[in-house]
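User: My instructor asked us to take a sequence, write out its structure as tokens, and then describe one feature of it. I'm not sure where to start. Here is the sequence I was given:
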Amino acid sequence: MILDLIPDDCFAHILSLTSPIDAFRISFVSSIIRVSANSDHVWEKFLPSDYQDILSKLLHPLVYSSKKELFLRLCNPHLIDGGNKTFSLEKSSGKIRYVLSARELNITWAENPLFWTWKPFPASRFFEVAELRTIWWLEIQGRINSRMLSPRTVYEAYLIVKLVDRAYGLDLLPSKVSVEVGNVKSEGTAYLRQHESKKQCLETNRFSNQSEVLRSMAYRGIEERVPSKREDGWLEIELGNFYNHGGDVEVKMCLKEVTGTHLKGGLVVEGIELRPKQS
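Assistant: Let's start with the prediction itself. The structure tokens for your sequence are:
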């Protein structure tokens, strides 16, 4: 095979300019090629340039015998920064993913036990989540520096939530969602839960007519998003997307519903995920 005639170091350099999925595939061509495809030179190129700094922040140290093994281990989420974030890589591309825990977010009045409760949650990847008891002003903000993410990549931001059985007031008005990077801002609206059934809607008539009018008028002409089920059992709400040029810019993400005066409760906030947009 002509590929077997290429010097190992030269072939390894060529592979390092491709992608992890390409290196995986070509390693099955022959045993000789597999040696180059599995080399540290190739797989170190697929790791983030600051991977040593990331490893130093892991809550639990990783043991690995090669750069390929390290890459594969990092494809699973790992707690970092004292357990307040998770870090992982996409297996096919090596792009960076983060989940910011609720403790990393700015949730209005989250430290007031009358409105929010901080508690462990069995299904959460973090030590605690924020559960909304009752409030009318709902505002959740997250921030991350763009240099922590993969450059030249389109990212999507999602709020990760659950609803308890007694949740109420979350589908009367849509929330305003946004992602802001520098002077570029994308906006939209989203409901925190699917619209209620007809019977439930009749029950909500006890709320003021003002809320119903606001609901019919709110953010007219803008597509409204609804939560979707994740593989991990949580719900996610799209906040927006942005292109990361690779500079040093703060990314701001927000969900806000402060238009209505009705009370809301039963929302469990786990965090915000930033992940590369699938093409």
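For the description part of your assignment, you could build on this observation: The longest helix spans residues 8-16. Try explaining in your own words what that tells you about the chain.
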